[in-house]
Amino acid sequence: MPRYNFYSGWPASGEIDIMESRGNKELISSIGINIGQQLISSTLNWGPNKDYNRYEYTSFHKTNENGFNSNFHNYQLEWSPEEIIFYVDGEEIGKVSPSDGGFWELGELNRTGLNNPWTGCSKMAPFDQEFYIIINLAVGGIKWFPDDATNAGGKPWNNKSPRAMSDFWEGLEQWLPTWKLETDDTHLQIDHVRVWAF
């Protein structure tokens, strides 16, 4: 997340997810794909407001049939004044190199009629500020877990519910037993984090 909301609130000031995963072992999409432990994403979130978050232009995915939980992996972000590149285990999975029109142009936001919060800034805005590191094992959420996916323990909330977060918590007895808290199977384990400048 940005150190400061320099360009206003989320997502105008951006968000960089170096690695994001749903930890569920058997979370299966409506078309039969494991979108739990076998899938990771690296994503930039950005846009003038939450209704125009253009993350889909800058979200990259990698699958692993053995599950990313089966071993340690290297998730890397290379960030320069010209581009942002995501890697998993040394393999490039996505690159974002905006033109001189920046992310506003990349997201085709001119036709929205909204004000550009990055006018007069570098082409990398909002990713021209300081950010905190995000390595994310998602637990819930109203977009990240599709309502039509299947999962051991079921899904005790609906994404359209105005009480989605409360429904999730009230369904504790439904999903908590699937976490196997007595083992390491449900823990996000990080060996190390390194940051360096060239």
Verbal overview:
The protein is mainly beta and 198 residues long. The protein has one domain (15-153). It is 8% helix and 20% strand. The protein has helices at residues 102-106, 164-170, 172-175, and strands at residues 15-22, 39-45, 59-63, 75-79, 84-88, 91-96, 135-138. The strands form two sheets. Strands 3-2-1-7 form a four-stranded mixed sheet, with no helix packed on it. Strands 4-5-6 form a three-stranded antiparallel sheet, with no helix packed on it. Strand 5 (84-88) and strand 6 (91-96) form a beta hairpin. It starts with 14 loop residues before the first strand and ends in a 23-residue tail after the last helix.
Summarize the structure.
The protein has 198 residues and is mainly beta. 8% of the residues lie in helices and 20% in strands. The protein has one domain (15-153).
Q: Domain count, please report it.
A: 1
Main sheet record: 4 strands, mixed
Euclidean distance between termini CA atoms = 22 Å
Q: H/E element string?
A: EEEEEEHEHH
Strand order of the largest sheet: 3-2-1-7
Q: DSSP strand (E) fraction?
A: 15-25%
Which percent range fits the helix content?
A: under 10%
Evaluate the radius of gyration: 18 Å
Spatial shape: globular
* Number of helical stretches of at least 4 residues: 3
Mean pLDDT equals: 93
What characteristics describe this protein?
3 helices, about 200 residues, single chain, globular, 4-stranded mixed sheet, mainly beta
